[in-house]
Amino acid sequence: MRLLREPLDDATALIFFGIAVAIAQALELTLEQRRELFYTAFPEFYVWDEAAEHGYTVDETNDLLHGRGLPLLTSDK
Fold first, then answer.
1. What pLDDT sits at residue 1?
2. Does pTM surpass 0.85?
3. Which of 2, 19, 57, 60 is the most core-located residue (most Cβ within 10 A)?
């Protein structure tokens, strides 16, 4: 589940990413703790990591993202 329901525009996503980085640094989180924080805040990161580990294509990755209700890597905008 995403913290926010709607996909973020790039500027807003960058702000939220910066906040997550600041929280991780302030709390001196370990690598595993940072990963958990980012996967909670941005669950698409988990899918991206999973896809990269398995060598999935963009289309295969988008299928995983779509199946979980997450923003796709690409769109038809």
1. 43
2. no
3. 2
